[in-house]
Model the fold of this input.
Amino acid sequence: MTIRVSPDSCTSLTETISWESLARISRRRLLILNRDNLLKAWDADFPKHDFGTGRLRRYSLDNFERACRRAEAERARQPLPQAPPQSTAKRAPQSTYEALLWELREYGLAQLAKQNCRERLAALSTDQLRELIAALMRLRSRHLTISEELLQKLAEQLP
Done:
């Protein structure tokens, strides 16, 4: 059974309100029944807007990539930072110095071939390297692994 109501037949305010409610319900029902057509019409009429939220679609990956390219271009324009002279360079942490002293005292010249020992040695300042050589010279009488060749190799590292 279908009831047809036209706006012309509404005479009182309550009938007008009910007509508006009926019209809203009818529109919703039509939209739900014709979802596919609505989605196609939405994409055709609003290609830059999201169907679910109605907001502009933003492709964050595109924006991120653009920001990366911009940052890389800015970085390329800046001059490379110059390393400070070795004498004014920061000192390595005390634990690095002590680990290097222990390594060389216990294992000697063979330890200089290992990567972690070379990295620690590179982290030392000139003053720390001088202190290391002096400490190894003092310990040489008690540790046979500290050789003259080891001390020469360390002295070659001095500027």
Notes: Residues 12-45 form one domain. The chain has three domains: 12-45, 47-77, 91-156. Confidence is low (pLDDT under 50) at residues 1-6, 9-16. The radius of gyration is 40 Å.
